[in-house]
TrEMBL record:
Residues 1-21 form the signal peptide. This is Dipeptidyl-peptidase. The keyword Electron transport does not apply. Coiled coil: none annotated. Belongs to the peptidase S46 family. The lineage of its organism: Bacteria, Pseudomonadati, Bacteroidota, Bacteroidia, Bacteroidales. It holds the Pfam family Peptidase_S46. Gene3D superfamilies: Trypsin-like serine proteases (2.40.10.10). It comes from Bacteroides graminisolvens DSM 19988 = JCM 15093. InterPro entries: Pep_S46, Peptidase_S1_PA, Peptidase_S1_PA_chymotrypsin. Its EC number is 3.4.14.-.
Amino acid sequence: MNKFKLYLLALLVLVLSPAKADEGMWLLQLMQEQHSIDMMKKQGLKLNATDLYNPNGVSLKDAVGIFGRGCTGEIISSEGLILTNHHCGYSSIQQHSSVEHDYLTDGFWATSRDKELPTPGLTFTFIERIEDVTDIVNAKIASKEITETESFTGKFLTALAQELYDKSDLKGKKGIVPQALPFYAGNKFYMFYKKTYTDVRMVAAPPSSVGKFGGETDNWMWPRHTGDFSMFRIYADANGEPADYSASNAPLKTKKHLAINIKGLKEGDYAMIMGFPGSTSRYLTVSEVKERMEATNSPRIRIRGVRQDVLKAEMNSSDKIRIQYANKYAGSSNYWKNSIGMNKAIIDNDVLGTKAEQESKFAQFAKEKSNDEYSKVVKLIDETVAKSSPLKYQRTCLTEAFLMGIEYSAPFTTFDTMLKAIENKDKAKVDSLKDNFRKAFERIHNKDYDHEVDRKVAKALFPLYAEMIPADQRPDIYGFIEKEYKGDFNKFVDDMYSNSIMSSKENLEKFLSKPNKKALESDLAARYYRSAYNKFTEINKQLNPLADELELLHKTYVRGLGEMKAPVPSYPDANFTIRLTYGNVKSYSPRDGVHYKYYTTANGILEKENPEDREFVVPAKLKELILKKDFGRYALPNGDMPVCFLTTNDITGGNSGSPVINENGELIGCAFDGNWESLSGDINFNNELQRCINLDIRYVLFIVEKLGNCGHLINEMTIIE
């Protein structure tokens, strides 16, 4: 039996291990082979494996999908009603908001179907089928059709997906999108057939004072009192198939939806989460963890912090700017604070020590096996990381400051094409390119962009980047600023934001009325963006071969770790594919003398209330309901209103909006966050501290019914009392 088969055997055998029972983002298609279903039943599950995932029939999998581009959502009625997080729906809520209709502040409630709002660009995606294609990939490697390195590339995986799709019975069916991906660091490959619906409409969203209660301050923290939910609906054509928006489309008749259990929960209750965790790095070495801290997290923290200070001041000064930048600020702040918490948790939880211990055990394992490949792999990873770390630091700084931080730019390739047409005296080509310039201008100056706000961001980030990166490693625009502006960043920024072709409609039309070579060659925005892009390309050219080396080294390391752990099964790192994690409702004690119970109530909302702080404003109607204890059937036996609760489930970004499901397959909550003390969890799971923060479904229904006056939505759900 070869090494690869031994590794697979190690993945497929289970030894019960209660100490780590809640760790793992398990693949649905391997639950029976890995016997994880037995452990789940031991912890309280009353369903069978085919109730969770059934390749030949309907299962819970069919009620869960990808919401938008980076979240999870679940179907909670037979008419396509979706529940997800408020922060997942935030960009859509912001898209529909204006000063006149401020749904961010006031909330949105569609009191009838005709009031549900079409949301262009928003999609919902189900997983139709999953296939193991490892043998196909390995055969291509063995026949030298591709190299092992090429098996990781997007180019190969896209071609493979298309090849298999073309041979499948799903070819030509509406909405089907094929995707092939590596797992276990390329030791396994799976093919996913996805079905994407493109007519998704906004149905309900509480005001931000509910959906984002606690804001940046409470983000990643417990205790939590955030009503982090929103609702949307899938519409389809007359045959129930995906179709772009049309007034004739009807709500999708779903083949599976989650029943909702409002009986309540107690500590120790079984809880599982099905969703799409985005990315984890559980198999890193010590050197790679240090690289994450120093080359990615630290520069991100510093640069985003400066940018966010500028944005916050501007947002506080204008409702128009607040609405424009609400989603951008929220997205930036989320992983800014995550990076802070991760670096702290890595130290507090001694993740480096844990990884060093793992490496020591692996070295001993390799020695006992007389496996030279395993004996060398960690050292080779460390040597590669030593080369990549300074480059990754440069790339993070460049990306955070210029490719993400500053929004204003000029499409220099379009400029180059125009310049060539002018030099060739090709008037027809020059005229044909004018529309491209206008489209580029509209992309920059969109409804969520403010030129003066971005100018202030640029004035903050240009000098900050110079502090963080030595002169010989900066884009050449810095040499230009030193030479032409005597190093005066403010003067350069003002000149670029005021006088470049893309600075204003007036400047654009003036240029297009008489396109000329001088204006194109001297344009500061084009010069700046070309410089930043060229530096980014230069760094990537150096990083790409190192990344290829690391891919192959990790394939060896992860295979070896799987063998070392055998017969305990391993799970692959998250890669935004459907996973299941199981655990229990559980409180925790993060440090000496501190104990957190497993749930919060609406009493805490009033305790945190601060009318002077936007993050802790309580809507008047909600306050009245809480004071009167007007919670209806959703209250606890003592009359209090539950808001959030904790479980031991193993989640990460992408799981936002995932359903929390009880032992009978019924919905009890919606996952939305992790806890501060375990933000190193993407790298190393901490069984004692890791908690998933969930919104209690009873609070969702209470808000929909009592605050939103949307009893019709409650009526279309299946509720178990």
